[in-house]
């Protein structure tokens, strides 16, 4: 999803998202009552594509998105002005994004910077 967003621009972001989102995709967010977040789930390919194309990604001027692993799955680390603003855990099934969980709650993000990369020894 991040690759799609970063490679696209303007209205092509939405079209690119339609290629990777499942028809019944769900987007949720958690601001912990401190940060802006969705008030209720956003459901369906058109609604989530619109949210991702003009909502989450355009809110702040100096935003960067990095591909990361979150809880063993694909995700995004979102920074604003160099500071962690949130993480997006992405659920993928049969090659399509079926869920996007945007966490902006500062209490839940407090350990993100301290996480240690897990490596496998040969």
Provide structural commentary:
By secondary structure, the protein is an alpha+beta fold. The longest helix is centred in the middle third of the chain and has 12 residues, at 45-56. The model has no long low-confidence stretch (mean pLDDT 81). It is built from 4 helices and 6 strands; from the N terminus they run ααββαββββα. Strand 3 and strand 4 form a beta hairpin. The chain has a 6-stranded mixed β-sheet with strand order 2-1-6-5-4-3. The chain starts with a helix and ends in a 13-residue tail after the last helix. Helix content is 26%, strand content 39%. Helix 2 (11-20) packs across helix 3 (45-56).
Q: Which percent range fits the helix content?
A: 25-40%
Number of helices: 4
Order of helices and strands: HHEEHEEEEH
Number of strands: 6
Over the alpha carbons, how many angstroms does the gyration radius reach? 14 Å
- Give unreliable regions as ranges: none
Percent of sequence in beta strands: 35-45%
- Ends distance: 31 Å
State the major sheet: 6 strands, mixed
How confident overall, as mean pLDDT? 81
* Strand order in the sheet with the most strands: 2-1-6-5-4-3
SSE class? alpha+beta
The shape is globular
Task: Provide key terms for this protein.
122 residues, 6 strands, globular, alpha+beta, 26% helix
Question: How is this fold's topology laid out?
Answer:
Layout lengths: L1 H6 L3 H10 E10 L11 E2 L1 H12 L6 E8 L2 E8 L2 E11 L2 E8 L2 H4 L13
Parallel strand pairs: 1-6
Antiparallel strand pairs: 1-2, 3-4, 4-5, 5-6
Helix pairs in contact: 2-3
Summarize the structure.
The chain is of the alpha+beta class and 122 residues long. The protein has four helices and six strands, in the order ααββαββββα.
